[in-house]
Design goal:
- By secondary structure, the protein is of the alpha/beta class.
- It is built from 10 helices and 11 strands.
- The strands form 3 sheets. Strands 2, 3, 4, 7, 8 and 9 form a 6-stranded parallel sheet that branches.
- Helix 3 runs parallel beside helix 9 and helix 6 packs parallel to helix 7.
- The longest helix is centred in the middle third of the chain and has 19 residues.
Length: 288
């Protein structure tokens, strides 16, 4: 099978590594550890990432979402024995390729998740309704695509619920999946997301389609990604230059490797789960 296996020894994504570095830096600042110690710790973490050192070896250093006062994480991927993966598209700007993407998805009978900003919903209401009618997930990507960790608690909730209300009025659908813009989050945001009855969703496989490296680059980046495995969440964008062109081969290659595509709503666990320090959603309560 392409990519990684989905066992307890999987390494986490570069996105998780970067966010952990940010979180640890913030954590050290909170507990008044010196600037010198903060810089030294960040340098050690960069070296660990370059050497492929797994964060589970440092799991006791960084608090996670297992209890009060500990850091909260979004869902980067899901632990499952089934070869299921979720393909996602962030919709924040353009719309030129949406119809082509939808045609390819229909051709392969693949259901995905679109995370939409409020501005995109306002600009393309007919496409929002079309996506839902075709059986895909509608996900929330905030109203204004801001760095959510920099907002007040009230503004965080407003960014979510203004889009929620728009989509509800337009389609009658109550969204419950949220992806923070730029992958930027903090513990307060995750708590605000859950307060709004949403599941916070990240990704563990980034197609890097937004970098416009070309069709072959998108296909290789995803299908040969070391983090690809059962329960992976793949990040793509509509409006990126080569995404639609790469999509047919991308889906075919992953299907040939034995993967089954499901929308995020069918991949994640809705209840009775816990999160590990890599942002992997695991069924069942955490052992104490």
């Amino acid at each position: 099978m392409l990519g990684r296996s989905n066992g307890d020894n999987d390494s986490q994504t570069s996105g998780v590594l970067i966010q952990y570095m940010r979180d640890i830096s913030a954590y050290l600042h909170e507990v008044n550890i010196s600037r010198k110690a903060t810089v030294l710790t960040a340098a050690i973490l960069v070296l660990a990432g370059l050497l492929g050192v797994r964060y589970r070896e440092m799991g006791t250093f960084l608090p996670t979402s297992s209890g009060g006062g500990e850091r909260e994480l979004p869902i980067y991927c899901v632990q499952t024995e089934e070869p299921k993966i979720a393909l996602t598209f962030d919709a924040a700007w353009g719309n030129d390729d949406t119809q082509k993407i939808m045609e390819i998805l229909k051709k392969h009978d693949v259901k995905v998740t679109f995370f939409m900003t409020g501005g995109w919903v306002d600009s393309y209401p007919d496409d929002v309704k079309m996506i839902l009618a075709e059986g895909h997930d509608l996900g929330n990507h905030s109203q204004n695509h801001k760095n959510m960790s920099q907002l007040s608690d009230a503004d965080k909730e407003e960014e979510l619920m203004s889009v929620h209300d728009k989509v509800k009025e337009l389609t009658g659908y109550d969204m419950f999946l949220f992806r923070p813009p730029y992958g930027d989050y903090d513990t307060k945001l995750i708590k605000a997301v859950r307060k709004c009855n949403y599941y916070p969703i990240q990704w563990d496989v980034d197609s890097l389609d937004w970098k416009d490296y070309g069709v072959d680059s998108i296909i290789k980046t995803v299908t040969q990604n070391e983090h690809l495995g059962n329960g992976s969440i793949i990040l793509c964008h509509n409006g990126a230059r080569y995404t639609a062109e790469a999509l047919d081969t991308l889906i075919t290659t992953l299907k040939d490797a034995g993967y089954q595509f499901v929308p995020v709503s069918e991949l994640i666990y809705r209840d009775n789960y816990h999160m590990d320090h890599e942002g992997r959603q695991i069924p069942g309560k955490k052992d104490r």
